[in-house]
Structures
1.
Amino acid sequence: MLTPQQYAEIAEQFRRGCVFCDPDPRLIVATSKRFRVCLDAAPLVPGHLILHSDRHLGCAGEVPEAWYEELDALRRSVRAQLEERYGRVISYEHGRAGHCLSDGPEHRLCHHFHLHFVPADVDVTGDLHRRFKHIPVDDYRTIPRLYEDYGDYLYFEASDRSMGYFPVDTAIERHLMRTLIAAATGSPERADWRAYRDADLLVTGLTEFSARPLEPYHAPKPQGATL
């Protein structure tokens, strides 16, 4: 499905500029009015997806609250479909903390909201508890208010759907969440997306979602609407 040259082009785009402002159309698997869902070009496992905003917003905490019904409906839909396909799924986001930090003008500084979905049954909550304050999240739509109160954060949703907000007020390692999850899934060599060279997992994802696309997004009905 991908020639070596095509994979090299996707990987290079992934490393430079803002891949979420101008995503490769081959990677997009779903869209809504304000958000897209695409395959991660450097997947930790087959089926690794990223939900991101069309508009260049720094993190979920900066997404306008008026957009959260759409965001949460899409988030739930993607997660449910991945669970149906793969079983257990986890989600994570670097909310302006430990981002894909730039190595210089030729490399990206990734301040663009993107939420990862990884088909896996691993839990890194304990690692996060040991280093950061833990704030349980009962409703994903409260993220903007938590961000206003606590600032930069890490977000993790376990395979049992429990959600946690971990405020970060100091410099941390780049792609910390990816590093923890890569180690937990038994593939620590996949932690650094800059050095990632495994085209097979991306080809697997492209093949799977080409054969069985995600169900189209349907906007949530306004409160009080009738059938």
2.
Amino acid sequence: MIPGTRMAVKTGADQTGGAFTLIEWSAPAGFGLPQHIHDREDEAFYILEGKIAIDCGDHHWTAGPGDFAFLPRHIPHSFIVTDEPVRGLQILGPPPT
């Protein structure tokens, strides 16, 4: 669990044969993670409510309701929740160990 967020694992490694984990999550405005790199897993977000500003490598964009953002492994990335709380789905594949 990351402080300031709510996370509910909807399906994990056991249910997907080790392919991915699907998490429903929410976070308040201003919440974010500093730049980091995943060496093992790709990460993706599908935004249901609110918006997040994303930096991934040389790309910078804002994802809002209905947007899908893919953050490949080995690429430095970060995000921050903009001016209202966010709720979305997060996919990690393969699942983190």
